[in-house]
Amino acid sequence: MWQTPLGGDGLIRETSPAFLPTSGPMITPEYVRTMAAYNAEMNRRIYDAAARLSDEERRRHRGAFWGSIHGTLNHILWGDMAWMSRFDGWDKLAAGIKQSDALHQDFFALSNARAEADRRISDWAGQVNPDWLHGDLAWVSAVLGKEISKPKTLLVAHFFNHQTHHRGQVHAMLTAAGEKTGDTDLPFIL
User: Fold this and answer.
1) 117 Cβ neighbours under 8 A, 6+ residues apart
2) Average pLDDT estimate for 39-59
3) DSSP assignment of 63-123, as one string?
4) Quick check: helix, strand or coil at residue 39?
5) Tell me: the pLDDT tens digits for 26-35?
6) Does the structure show a pLDDT above 60 at 13?
7) Residue 61 in 3-state DSSP?
8) Domains of the chain: which residue ranges?
9) Which CATH superfamily is domain 26-179 in?
């Protein structure tokens, strides 16, 4: 159920979203593989651009939620690792979300960890099948302090959306710092 304003009274009511597909899967193994490839290519472009900046420029607070380019890149990797621990049995992280912007202090260690994570995400994506996507995934949310269960397809969509959301913030910070990543549009990347 979603909360949406209905009618002229401006009241919020819970409704079923009309935009959800009524037949056929929206999230397929092909979608997972496409998004994993897009993720890896965009990360390569973002990290190449960030590497052209000084460490001071990468760490400069630029008003983003995770502060800096360096902090936001750390958070993206942290989020990917947290979800992959649920999707594919990766080791659970000791650091919580509040420390996610400090996962790696050294940029080149962060860059290497990102490349390795992208390789592993692509390997996982290559193994995803319709049976794995079917059903729910349950996990204990440290943020909410309780067990959550959601459809795997929704969680996979969130996984890729989270990357894209924060990578967009990094892209804006890189652009403001005078760096370019090239095109970012999915149809023109792959």
Assistant:
1) 77, 80, 81, 84
2) 97
3) SBTTBSHHHHHHHHHHHHHHHHHHHH-PPPPSS-GGGGGGS-SSHHHHHHHHHHHHHHHHH
4) helix
5) 899 999 999 9
6) no
7) coil
8) 26-179
9) dinb family like domain (1.20.120.450)
